Amino acid sequence: MWKNLMRPYVRPLPQWSTVAVAPPQQVVTATLHWDGKSEDVTEDHTVASLVPLVIATSLDAGQHPVLEYRDSATGRLLGVLRLVKTASIATEKTSLTLYHVAAGEHRCLGWPLRPWNAWLQNRLMLKNRSPHHFAPEPGAVQQLMIAYLCPRPVVLVCVDTPGHRNIFPMDLIGPLERSGLFSLALRNTNVSVPVMREVRRVALSGIPAAMKAVVYKLAEHHKQPLPDWNVLPFSVRPSREFGIPAVAAALRIQELAIVHSREVGSHTLFLGRIVSDENLAEGAQLHHTAGFHQAYRRRDGTPFAEI
Ligand SMILES: Cc1cc2nc3c(=O)[nH]c(=O)nc-3n(C[C@H](O)[C@H](O)[C@H](O)COP(=O)(O)O)c2cc1C
């Protein structure tokens, strides 16, 4: 009993919570506010880079907009990111705006737990930091967790050429609704980045929540290509137009024709058009959200199913 009461004061919450959500998530609404205007960007914003932390949207919301995340059911404010415009990308008769995250704050925990939990989390990040490893500053990770208040779906991305094949998990993905584009933010060091820039086509498999363990194992393929499709512990099926091997048990397989790519800080932002979209099964998809968001929902009696 005492142990449970004291736990939040001695141990930080996990940064991330892996949860099962039926797509598309509608539990959290994201709204951009600027110059007296507001627009819903739940399906129109994505993370473009982690270092620095950059958000992309197809709206031009001026120089200093505020991005608000609210619980869709109650309207309660969950978190806020303060943005500063850094660049525009013009491609395919449309344009996107890139915003640097200047500040952020969440409301998922009350005072004094909110600053205390952040302090515990930041201390742990600094302790586990390796000098040779890519890692954003703890303050930026706190802001990233706010961007994950909208639970982010996990997909497996498949690339297939005669000389290179690969499959790896991604969650820095999403539609940029108003432009009709779909984005992927991939670390510049990912082994498939040069191939994707050249072949300009990938298949995305929406992953059932039950496949969490196998998906995490495939994270190693951010660094090394797949030797052969036969080594995978699950079956693949060809995607509809491109014939790229994709996950047979996927909830959905989408093919993306890449129309633009550019480096944004630590990541390469790929922008594409969905050329085919096969809905194969109903069910809960693997998603990531912030640990403090799950703690908020647990307190509220509406936790996500955790996996
Ligand atoms: C579920 C999941 C989703 C991921 N999503 C992305 C992503 O969207 N973009 C990206 O560059 N890397 C993504 N990664 C890769 C990780 O950031 C990391 O590069 C990989 O796990 C290798 O980790 P290491 O560099 O710590 O060894 C993802 C990994 C996992 C397990």
Helix content, binned percent: 10-25%
- CATH class label of the largest domain: Mainly Beta
User: Which overall shape is indicated by the principal axes computed on the Cα atoms?
Assistant: globular
- Please state the structural category: alpha+beta
> What's the domain count?
2
Strand order of the largest sheet: 3-2-6-7-8-5-4
Q: Evaluate the radius of gyration.
A: 19 Å
InterPro entries: Flavin_Rdtase-like_dom, Split_barrel_FMN-bd
Protein name: Flavin reductase
Domain Flavin reductase like: 150-278
Organism: Rhodanobacter terrae
Question: What's the topology here?
Answer:
Blueprint: H1 2-10, E1 16-21, E2 28-34, E3 37-40, E4 45-49, E5 54-57, E6 66-71, E7 77-91, E8 94-106, H2 113-128, H3 138-147, E9 152-153, E10 155-161, E11 164-170, E12 173-176, E13 181-187, H4 193-199, E14 201-206, H5 212-217, E15 236-238, E16 245-247, E17 252-264, E18 267-279, E19 285-290, H6 291-300, E20 305-306
Residues 154, 169-172, 185-187, 190, 215-216, 219, 222 line the site of flavin mononucleotide.
Give a verbal description of the structure.
The strands form 4 sheets. Strands 3-2-6-7-8-5-4 form a 7-stranded antiparallel sheet. A 7-stranded antiparallel sheet has the order 11-10-14-17-18-13-12, with helices on one face. A 4-stranded antiparallel sheet has the order 9-19-1-20. Helices cover 19% and strands 43% of the residues. A hairpin with a 4-residue loop joins strand 12 (173-176) and strand 13 (181-187). The protein has 6 helices and 20 strands. The protein has helices spanning 2-10, 113-128, 138-147, 193-199, 212-217, 291-300; strands at residues 16-21, 28-34, 37-40, 45-49, 54-57, 66-71, 77-91, 94-106, 152-153, 155-161, 164-170, 173-176, 181-187, 201-206, 236-238, 245-247, 252-264, 267-279, 285-290, 305-306. It is globular and about 55 Å long. It folds into 2 domains: 2-149, Pnp Oxidase, Chain A (Roll); 152-286, Roll (Pnp Oxidase, Chain A), CATH 2.30.110. By secondary structure, it is α+β, with helices and mostly antiparallel strands. The longest helix has 16 residues, at 113-128. Flavin mononucleotide binds next to strand 11, strand 13 and helix 5.
